[in-house]
Known about the structure:
By secondary structure, the chain is of the alpha+beta class. The protein has helices at 4-24, 32-38, 43-54, 58-76, 82-88, 94-105, 109-115, 138-154, 178-191, 258-271, and strands at 126-129, 132-135, 155-162, 165-173, 201-206, 219-225, 237-241, 244-253, 282-285, 297-304. 42% of the residues lie in helices and 21% in strands.
Amino acid sequence: xxxxxxIEKDYISRINLALKYIDNNLDFELSLESLSKMALYSPFxxxxxxxxxxxxxLHAYIIxxxxxxxxxxxxxxxxxxxxxxxxxxxxxxxxxxTRAFKxxxxxxxxxxxxxxxxxxxxxxxxxxxxxxxxQVFEKYICNINNHLNWIKMHANIEIKEVPELKFASMTHxxxxxxxxxxxRLLKWAKSKDLMKNPGTxxxxxxxxxxxxxxxxxxxxxICLLTNEPFIVKGEIxxxxxxxxxxxxxxxxxxxxxxxxxxxSLFIWMNENGYKKAEEHPFEIYHxxxxxxxxxxxxxxxxxxxx
Length: 306
């Protein structure tokens, strides 16, 4: 007899396929019919299960992901026009794109771009008013220096060629309950004798940016890095982190210091003239902080770069 738990894991596995496809095809048509067919559900059941697991309807999720993608482009690819963005991501006009964008961020795409210049530039932006130069980001530059000092005190940074990494993973949304997912994945790994290899590590991949996505909706893959064979079943996915050139920051930090460490590493990246690649940032853990005398995490933060 199939248990309720097995059914829920099957739901998660099929919805994960749809999530991956959506994220990789935001500039193509994404219909309920095609996605439900991919997940082997009727449109009615797919829509119901998707909302239950993801926390929003399929339509709302696709719109949000497209808006967040355009926000990222506005921040990092300033040569692309707003008209190009609206057409690329399926909006009928600049007006409809602007209305949708404003619902998410409270300002228009053009205002968003103006209010978010390259804040990590070594040279603070200045404006001229009545013949006087006004330092616009003086306070922010001070904040940059604080982050760079944090890096000096708490991290060793290297530019590395990172080999291809294979993993088993579970999907999680939001910042709450992450520790429980790590524990479930670890329990599964131990039951399959996957922890015997000393090279096996726990990791986390971020599919969304906290700069543009609500923290409660950020999608993560909680991972076990392993070259051992395993069966993909239920909520367990298989994936690969592609071979890449990465900025790797080695930290020994408290759990509450992760946000500051990530911000500092991205600032270090910009200050040193590197550009983030399309691949997602990820963390690799070298200990369980709960077993550390000082309750510190020994972790490598990876930013793939061009």
